[in-house]
Each structure stands twice: as structure tokens, then as C-alpha cells.
Design brief:
Bound molecules: nicotinamide-adenine-dinucleotide
Helix content: 40-55%
Largest sheet: 6 strands, parallel
Number of strands: 9
Strand order of the largest sheet: 3-2-1-4-5-6
CATH topology of the largest domain: Rossmann fold
Radius of gyration: 20 Å
CATH class of the largest domain: Alpha Beta
CATH superfamily of the largest domain: NAD(P)-binding Rossmann-like Domain
Order of helices and strands: EHEHEHEHHEHEEHEHEHHHHHH
Strand content: 5-15%
Shape: globular
Number of helices: 14
Length: about 300
């Protein structure tokens, strides 16, 4: 029997998302360049992906969760790409964070073949992916958004249709630019407080009840020891990687040039994460910028 869902990209995000589809009662066949990831999905009840061309031909839905634009283009385009192989009626859902323009081009190319494709990037990180509480920001047609509901509902809690092809990625770029800037601002404020002898936990508590309150302060406080469960309190391991934030801020700056929209703080944040990454911290959680800001 051909599994209903073909899932391509079983990394930190893709694996828990695929597992939630499996738990939700869908049959899933998984593909990843790393064999160990495919084996983990198979151990959990998924089917082993050997021949992508064969699998996508019979699939009802293809979901992809890949690192960046170039990976998505290489999987979907070309003679052996998903767009060339799927049958009409197959729904394509790309949840990777990629350039809005690339998402738009893929959606339009799929539509030209009579295939529904939506860009459906997510917010919530590996924790939200595991818990099935991701926020999906979708670009595409109303029909594509409606057809995706049964699948997205197994992986997320808040599902939004932002507009035409590429709009989901545009929302994601705006959201993550603000997140990147907010993290740096929060880290700076905490650094200044600590430099003046304040207890960062006390400072965080007071700011969280004042006008400096924000999501970073309460959910992924970058100062070690303030939140025992945060990446900061665990050597900045896990969480949301500096290089992924750098990629997203790069998309924001690239988009701002194309649209002639000024993003001075987005550009500055990109440069600060770039410097931080080049200091060797690219794989750490993005809150680790707190450490670089504290260097004398
Ligand atoms: P990841 O690097 O852990 O996973 C990507 C997976 O794709 C890897 O397992 C890799 O082997 C696989 N892959 C790459 N090219 C492939 C190909 N051609 N065919 C099959 N598999 C291939 O990355 P992740 O953290 O899971 O992130 C995936 C996407 O989700 C990214 O676009 C990221 O920006 C976005 N995102 C990540 C987070 C987060 O907190 N990690 C949060 C929201 C969105």
C-alpha cells in the first residue's frame, strides 16, 4: 500500500512533525539524507523511503521540512523533482523557512501543472513540533489551505492563511526578524542590569510586569540561571540555532532590498549574529549572543 504522506527532511523539526502525523493515524513514508533519521521514523511505525520518485507518484500529500531555499528547490524542481513526478490531486506542503520569492515561484509552477502547493512555515521550535502546538503561517490558495487542514491540525494548534503563494514565508521573515532584534535588545538590557550589580532574575521578573515585557524574556531568557529550563541554563544547547537565525535575518535583509523597505535594526541584528557565528557559536542557541555582548 502506498503511504498517504511522503515526508522529506526528518531533522530537529521534521522528525517530531512526521511522528505526529503517524500518531494522528496517517501512514507516513520518510526521506532524509541521514539514514539514521529514516531508521528512527521506521522504528516508530513509519515506512522506509527508498525510491522518492516511486513514493511521491502515489502519495496524497508531500510535506517537506528542509534547511533552506536551495534544498527545497533541489527537491521540487528538475526532471526528477517532486513537481515533475507527482500526480494531479496531490497536495504539496513546504514547511521549511525559505525566501518568499522562491516559495511564490514554486507555488506558481505547481499551479501551472494543476497541483496545489502551499508554503507553510512554522513557529514554535522543536518543543512545539514535539507537542503538536506549532503555529502555521500559510501562503497559497483557499483550497490549498482547506485541503491541508487535516494534516496541519495534527502538527499544530494555530493555523493561519496569510494570503497568496509566498505570503506564509513573508510572515515568517517578519516574525523572525522581530524575534532576532528582541533577543538582542533583551540581552543588552540584562547585561546592563548585571553590570550594575542587579540580580538578572529579579530584573527579569520586574521587566516582565513592566513595559519591557516580551516573549524572549519569559520564554527563552538568554541569561544563564534565570530560567532553569531555557537553553541559556543548559550551555545554550538545543533551542534555536544562531545560524538558523542568521539565515532568517539574511532573508529579511534580502527581501528588504527587493522591496526597497528599510530594516535598519534587522540589518544590524543580522551583522551581530554573523559576528557571533564567526566567533564559533553558530550551532548554539541564538540567546548565546548574551555571552558575546558581555565580552570586555
Ligand atoms: P535540520 O537541519 O535539523 O533538518 C533538516 C533535515 O533535512 C536534515 O535531517 C537533512 O539531512 C535533511 N535534508 C537536507 N537535504 C535533504 C534532501 N535533499 N533530501 C532529504 N532530506 C534532506 O533543520 P531543522 O531545525 O529541522 O529546520 C528545518 C527547517 O525548519 C529550516 O528551514 C528552519 O529554518 C525551520 N525552522 C526551524 C526551527 C528550529 O527551531 N529548529 C523553528 C522553526 C522553523
Amino acid at each position: 500500500m502506498t503511504p498517504e504522506v511522503v515526508f522529506i527532511g526528518l531533522g530537529n523539526m521534521g522528525m517530531p512533525m512526521a511522528l505526529n502525523l503517524l500518531r494522528g493515524g496517517f501512514s507516513v513514508i520518510g526521506f532524509d539524507l541521514a539514514q539514521a533519521n529514516v531508521d528512527s521514523l521506521v522504528a516508530a511505525g513509519g515506512a522506509k523511503g527508498i525510491d522518492l520518485a516511486q513514493a511521491v507518484k502515489g502519495a496524497k500529500v508531500v510535506v517537506s521540512m528542509l534547511p533552506a531555499s536551495q534544498h527545497v528547490q533541489s527537491v521540487y524542481l528538475g526532471d526528477q523533482g517532486v513537481l515533475a513526478l507527482v500526480q494531479k490531486g496531490t497536495l504539496l506542503i513546504d514547511s521549511s523557512t525559505i525566501a518568499p520569492q522562491v516559495a511564490k515561484e514554486l507555488g506558481v509552477a505547481a499551479a501551472a501543472k494543476g497541483i496545489e502547493m502551499i508554503d507553510a512555515p512554522v513557529s514554535g521550535g522543536p518543543f512545539g513540533a514535539k507537542a503538536g502546538t506549532l503555529t502555521f503561517m500559510v501562503g497559497g490558495t483557499e483550497q490549498g489551505f482547506a485541503a491541508a487542514q487535516p494534516y496541519l491540525q495534527k502538527m499544530g494548534k494555530a493555523l493561519y492563511h496569510a494570503g497568496a503563494h509566498g505570503s506564509g514565508q513573508t510572515v515568517k521573515v517578519c516574525n523572525n526578524m522581530l524575534l532576532g532584534i528582541t533577543m538582542i535588545g533583551t540581552a543588552e538590557a540584562l547585561r546592563l542590569g548585571v553590570a550594575n550589580g542587579l540580580d538578572p532574575a529579579v530584573l527579569s521578573e520586574i521587566m516582565s510586569k513592566s513595559s519591557g515585557n516580551n516573549w524572549v524574556l519569559n520564554s527563552c531568557n538568554p541569561c544563564p540561571g534565570v530560567m532553569p529550563e531555557s537553553a541559556a541554563s543548559n550551555g545554550y544547547a538545543g533551542g534555536f540555532g544562531v545560524d538558523l537565525m542568521l539565515k532568517d535575518l539574511g532573508l529579511a535583509v534580502e527581501n528588504s532590498l527587493a522591496t526597497k523597505c528599510s530594516v535598519p535594526l534587522g540589518g544590524l541584528a543580522r551583522n551581530l549574529y554573523d559576528m557571533h557565528s564567526k566567533l564559533g557559536h553558530g550551532k548554539l542557541d541564538y540567546g548565546s549572543i548574551y555571552e558575546t555582548l558581555g565580552k570586555k
